[in-house]
Amino acid sequence: MSISIHETMRITRIHQETVKQEQDPADLSLLEPLLEKYRGKKGSLIPLLQGAQEIYGYIPWNVFERISDATGLKLSDLYGVATFYAQFRLHPVGKNIIKVCHGTACHVQNANTITDSLKEALNVKDGETTPDGLFTLESVACLGCCSLAPVMMVAGEVFGKLTGKEAVRIIRDIRIKENN
Amino acid sequence: MEKIKVIVGLGSCGIAAGAGKTYEKIQALRQAENLDFDLKKTSCIGMCYREPLVEIIDQTGSYLYGEIDEIRAVEIIDRHVIHHTPVKEHVVQTDLFPTADNDFMQNQIKITLRNCGYIDPENIDEYEARQGYRAIKKIAGQRISRMDVVQTVISSGLRGRGGGGFPTGLKWKFANDNKATEKYIICNADEGDPGAFMDRSVLEGDPHSVLEGMIIGAYAIEATGGVIYCRAEYPLAIKRLNIALEQARRKGYLGNNILGIQGFDFDIHIKEGAGAFVCGEETALIASVEGERGMPRKRPPFPASSGLWKKPTNINNVETYANIPWIILNGAEAYARYGTEKSKGTKVFALAGKIRRSGLVEVPMGISINDIIFKLGGGIRDGKKFKAVQLGGPSGGCIPEYLAHTPIDYDSVTATGAIMGSGGMVVMDETTCMVDVAKFFLDFTRKESCGKCTFCRIGTKRMLEVLTRITEGKGEQGDIERLQDLAFQIKESSLCGLGQTAPNPVLTTIKYFRDEYEAHIRDKKCPAKACKQLLTYEVIPDKCTGCMVCAKNCPVEAITGERKQVHFIHQEKCIRCGVCFSKCKFEAIRLS
Question: Is any Cβ of chain A less than 8 angstroms from the Cβ of B478?
Answer without folding.
Answer: no
